[in-house]
Amino acid sequence: MCGIAGFFHKSLSFDESKMKITSMIENIEHRGPDATNVVISKFFSSATARLAIEKIKEGKQPIISESKKYILSFNGEIFNYKDIINKYSFQSKNVNSEIKLLENLFEIKGTSFVNELEGQFAISIYDLQKQVLYLFRDRFGIRPLFYQINKKSFIYASEIKSISAFSKEIFNTNIKSIASTSLFWSNINKSTSFEKIYQLQPGHYLTYKNGNLEINKYWENPILLNDDYNNNPDFSQILQDALKRQIHGEVGFSSYLSGGIDSSAIAYLLTKIQNSPIDTFSIQFENKEYDETDAQNKIQKVINSNHYALKISDQDIVENFERVINHSEAHLFRTAPVPMYLLSKKVKEVGHKVVFTGEGADEVLLGYDIYGELKIRQFWSKFPDSKIRPQLLQKLYYYLPQFKNKRYFQITKEFYRKNLKDLSNIFYSHQVRWNQYNVIKNFFNLDQDDFSREKLEKELLENFNKRFNKLEVIKRAQLIEIDTLLSGYLLSSQGDRMTMAHGVEGRYPYLDDKLNLELASISPQSKAPCLKLKNILRKSFKGILPNEIVNRPKFAYQAPEAKVFFNNKKGLTIVNEFIDGLSNNEKLNKDSFINLISKFKNPDISSRLGFRENMAFIIGLSDHFLKKVSANWLAINNSNRKKINYEYFN
Amino acid sequence: MSISIKQIEDDLLSYLKKGNPIVAKIKDIPKDKSLVELGYIDSFGIIDLVTYFEKKWKIKIENEEITPECFGSINKILELLEKKILLKK
Q1: Does A603 sit behind a cis peptide bond, omega within 30 degrees of 0 on the bond before it?
Q2: Across the interface, do A442 and B40 touch by the CB < 8 Å criterion?
Q3: The CATH homologous superfamily of the domain defined by A2-219
Q4: Residue A5 pairs with which residues in a beta bridge?
Q5: Residue A296 belongs to what H/E stretch?
Q6: Of B25, B37, B63, which is closest to A595 when you measure between CB atoms?
Q7: For the domain bounded by B5-88, which CATH number is listed?
Q8: Interface ipTM
Q9: CA angle A304, A309, A310 (to 5 degrees)
């Protein structure tokens, strides 16, 4: 688990290359505090800031292959590397680390080697003879990989700030990212929050040769390909197997514990596997609206973990927002990454490098409300005049005032009725959510056609395999969630970037490759019959975990939103700074934001803040901070320069 | 004291402008177009209006009346308010 960086450039001297690659890797040293290594060759340089987890001594990288043909480096974990070593009898070649495995497997299989790798990874392989660079990224996009292509060069890195250190140019924030974050809640396809900076998409590999780029998809989610449902196994066993595969490394592990069933199941099984109490970490909020302490305590008592709870105040969110933007490198639509940033700091302080977490469970096991919402709309659409059918929405969204209150529900349900009969719409499941774009986009200057909802939806659709259109609608909903919110936000802005800010690695057992293969042969109806969301998980932990945990309805993890910036001095200073910046920010609609801010400030009407107004504010504020922090990426602080090992190859 | 339609309208517009950052920046709010369709207000905005009208004009708006039709455009809202306020008298 590391930070990697590299570039191809035909006309740089060794000294120039050394300077560039050093700046690049120093900008992301937080990702790998254990060792920094650089390899410089004639046209290609590569560096790794390593967080040593497995084969701490043997795993030094980047490496030059024994054949002297390749320079390789990678960030992540190959969970099945020992299996592959056995399969190909690589022991005889002294293969004893993941990086050596990658070298040997690539030598015999070429780019198709990636199909054999299970894990979370970003891999770089440069062919010194053919002058070809290959980059690979894991299937769900757990580990990041960004790139920039210029006339004379190709630059890539685990984080955008590293690319900035190469080019020494200030990157512009991307208005398209504002549009897509407002609509889909994340960037889509290869776009990032910066112009001309792209991400290698999950499940893809890239080939750079003679100034040309070729990108291929090497993986499709198995739920897209399989509709032969023959499996109805005990899910706890599947999860336990995944955890066993992922307990990998020489440095131990810990677990997050949110109070929901996803992380409770993980923590329970890890305790069982380790056969002794594990360390667990959770967030608590001073604001009771968001707090899950009671549920956390219940599960903690069962597994008897050494539990560390971190209490988050409104002030904490305000004080860390800028730092979080510096790490997320993306437009945020909620403040929820901030507590995750602070929690991973806690994990580090306690002395852990690895933490298991429940992300992905709601996507792959059908846990989100949006799946329930879809089922209700389908059911209601068969009898649109029914008074009873829409009332199921009140059951689903029991925790929201506009559903709880009878007269508010009267109008709320009309917004759900709007596209009720558009069943042939390819994005039927997400229509109600995406209708909100209509409101949010008014806060930004998104009048061009490029940012119309139709255009953006079309772009999202282009990313999907042709089979997508023929899938049952609930699977389409799943794939949309996986491609947008999961990879574009939960695993990145709220995941990798927050844990790696403190050199901590997240493990995501619900996104395990084998586990997802098995899940593909289980029907959506078994995963979530009727409105029993994530039933497959709940069922298998019944009688094992406390009933309150097993039957607990989904409590979406959220943190206090925009209002935290308006009830204290530091927050108001930030707001004033934001207002000052509005005149030079052609992406934000100045009038709308000025009006929004005076609304926030007015105690009489600030209680009237809607979900969309909060979201617009956080997106706008992120853009402000992205501009600010990205300007600092050029000025690298070399004051605590660590020892860097340089290796040259002529 | 009689209340004129103009008064009701001015009050409605000023309330919308005060509480709605989007409406506030628009010079001429279209009176017969749906504010919902235009993306100016959402369900939350309608609930907010209902609460405000009931307090301000001391009227009761029935659950069945809280629909996108009645609350679609400025004119529709005025129609409803006028009926309610006059009825009260």
Answers
A1: no
A2: yes
A3: Aminohydrolase, N-terminal nucleophile (Ntn) domain (3.60.20.10)
A4: A47, A157
A5: helix A293-303
A6: B25
A7: 1.10.1200.10
A8: 0.84
A9: 170
| 3-state SS assignment for residue B38 | coil
How far is C-alpha B50 from the geometric centre of its chain's CA atoms?
Answer: 8
State pTM to two decimals.
Answer: 0.95
Query: Residue B24's closest chain A neighbor by CA?
Result: A595
What does the block give as tokens for A632? 């600092």
* pLDDT tops 70 at residue A607: no
Cross-chain CB nearest to A411 (options B19, B40, B66) = B66
Name A450's Cβ contacts closer than 8 Å, sequence gap at least 6: A176, A179
CATH code that applies to domain A224-359+491-550 = 3.40.50.620
Q: Which of residues 499-558 of A touch B (CB under 8 A)?
A: none
Among A106, A60, A58, CA closest to A84: A106
Judged by CB atoms closer than 8 Å, whether chains meet at B66 and A410 is answered as yes
Half-sphere exposure in the Cβ direction for A446 (13 Å, CA): 27
Task: Report CB contact under 8 Å: A592, B50.
Answer: no
pLDDT in tens, chain B (89 residues): 577 888 999 999 988 888 788 888 888 888 888 888 888 888 878 888 888 899 889 999 888 888 877 888 999 999 999 988 887 76
The C-alpha of B54 sits at a distance from chain A's nearest C-alpha, in angstroms, of 13
Q: Is B67 on the interface with A (CB under 8 A)?
A: yes
The ranges of chain A annotated as CATH 3.40.50.620 are: 224-359+491-550
Identify any residues that bridge with A50 across adjacent strands, giving them in sequence order. Answer: A2, A35
Name the CA radius of gyration of chain B, rounded. Answer: 12
Distance CA A77, CA A509 (A): 13
Residue located via tokens 């609509």: A183
pLDDT tens track for A401-410: 788 888 888 8
Range(s) for CATH 3.60.20.10 in chain A? 2-219
Contact across the interface for B44 and A612, Cβ inside 8 Å: yes
User: CA distances (Å), B64 to each of A591, B59, B78, in order?
Assistant: 35, 15, 17
Interface contact A595, partner B, CB < 8 A? yes
In chain B, where the domains are located: 5-88
